[in-house]
Amino acid sequence: MNILDKIVADKRKEVALRKSLIPVKQLESSVLFGRKSPSLAEALRSSSSGIIAEHKRRSPSKSVINQGLNVQDVAKGYEEAGVCGMSVLTDGKYFGGSLDDLLLARTVANIPLLRKEFIIDAYQILEAKAHGADVILLIAAILSRDEIKTLSETAKNLGLDVLLEVHNEKELQKSIMPSLDMLGVNNRNLKTFEVSLETSKSLFTQIPDDFVKVSESGISSVAAIQELRQYGYQGFLIGENFMKTDNPGAHASEFIKGLTS
Ligand SMILES: O=C(O)c1ccccc1NCC(=O)[C@H](O)[C@H](O)COP(=O)(O)O
């Protein structure tokens, strides 16, 4: 069993438990459920930086990145830095995150928030909306085409943007459909943890122009982004490079200045 299989097996149990504890009606009656979500795809299209900055305490590939920060400070810092959106990892077991992190980020920031999660069930999309997310992530490696269609249509019906993540041509070809807003190429192979920006560079021609192209993982320099832009990428998801510092917001701010100067 690879790490992705393990995460998904645990996620199925976790979602079943959560469903038994919190009924859909309760999620739907939350204050944030009625909130209009700003679009991350639109923000990326009109941005000169394209940065989506992530809150990431730890990960299967790197173990601990930074456990000592307050998620609200990180969210405020990212917003002040001028990022287009913030990604909040909500998985507890492997990433040390939670839905409370999303809620806390929402209370202090107005930028689009992405629920970074291993979504396998529409219930998790309702949770995302109820906790202030504007965008959900769907991972092609763990979903069938039919599941991607059902889950992305659920998200669109709730006014959320959808970022669909792929790692290779096969995942990309099975996933293309109109209910997606952004296509993300993950430079990290989630089964082996190997990271290479070549993954983004090799897949860009096959992503139709209707989708905002996002390059994810392993991005740590302004030069890398300038190069990825040549391939048509408009969004850049960065986690560890910001989160490993004492002040991710300040680091993101310096990074964005380097990109836009
Ligand atoms: O980051 C991991 O080790 C990981 C392992 C298994 C599944 C997903 C994983 N990461 C999720 C992500 O996609 C990244 O957090 C995100 O793209 C940011 O990456 P980075 O800038 O390299 O922290």
UniProtKB/TrEMBL annotation:
<dbReference type="GO" id="GO:0004425">
    <property type="term" value="F:indole-3-glycerol-phosphate synthase activity"/>
</dbReference>
<keyword id="KW-0028">Amino-acid biosynthesis</keyword>
<comment type="pathway">
    <text>Amino-acid biosynthesis; L-tryptophan biosynthesis; L-tryptophan from chorismate: step 4/5.</text>
</comment>
<protein>
    <recommendedName>
        <fullName>Indole-3-glycerol phosphate synthase</fullName>
        <ecNumber>4.1.1.48</ecNumber>
    </recommendedName>
</protein>
<keyword id="KW-0210">Decarboxylase</keyword>
<dbReference type="Pfam" id="PF00218">
    <property type="entry name" value="IGPS"/>
</dbReference>
<dbReference type="InterPro" id="IPR013785">
    <property type="entry name" value="Aldolase_TIM"/>
</dbReference>
<dbReference type="GO" id="GO:0000162">
    <property type="term" value="P:L-tryptophan biosynthetic process"/>
</dbReference>
<dbReference type="InterPro" id="IPR011060">
    <property type="entry name" value="RibuloseP-bd_barrel"/>
</dbReference>
<comment type="similarity">
    <text>Belongs to the TrpC family.</text>
</comment>
<keyword id="KW-0057">Aromatic amino acid biosynthesis</keyword>
<keyword id="KW-0822">Tryptophan biosynthesis</keyword>
<dbReference type="InterPro" id="IPR013798">
    <property type="entry name" value="Indole-3-glycerol_P_synth_dom"/>
</dbReference>
<keyword id="KW-0456">Lyase</keyword>
<dbReference type="GO" id="GO:0004640">
    <property type="term" value="F:phosphoribosylanthranilate isomerase activity"/>
</dbReference>
<feature type="domain" description="Indole-3-glycerol phosphate synthase">
    <location>
        <begin position="4"/>
        <end position="251"/>
    </location>
</feature>
<dbReference type="InterPro" id="IPR045186">
    <property type="entry name" value="Indole-3-glycerol_P_synth"/>
</dbReference>
